[in-house]
Amino acid sequence: MNSSTRKCVGVATKCRALDQLPPADQPKCASWVHPDKPGWYLVHRNDLLVFEPEYAPTSPETFDEDASILFERDSYFPGFVSFGFVSKPGHVAHAAADGFVRLAPIDDTLDFKNAASSFVVKYKKKGESERNLSY
Length: 135
What we know:
7% of the residues lie in helices and 30% in strands. By secondary structure, the protein is mostly beta strands. A hairpin with a 7-residue loop joins strand 5 and strand 6.
């Protein structure tokens, strides 16, 4: 996520907090790295989603959990995912009214479900095999 341009960008990598999760949640977890800045992970800060470097985190004691995302397939609509962070249970990312992607408590309204649903686009670079997010 790039909150300044509001475009989804990033590369899924191994979940940083995998060993802290129950076995049922482990396949749903990944960490998201900036495609142009190795070592910069998507985290939440004050409920705003930002990329932060692992070499200088603002919260080193919770960085692994803050940079670990749980993806829920078909949570609101078939074919779509919602996602939240290991360190903030009961909250999911959603497109807020101000145009930024933020974490918010789970809400059962249709407007919230629409704003919290994402579609993961599979892509491949020329000469590479298709990349899939496993969850």
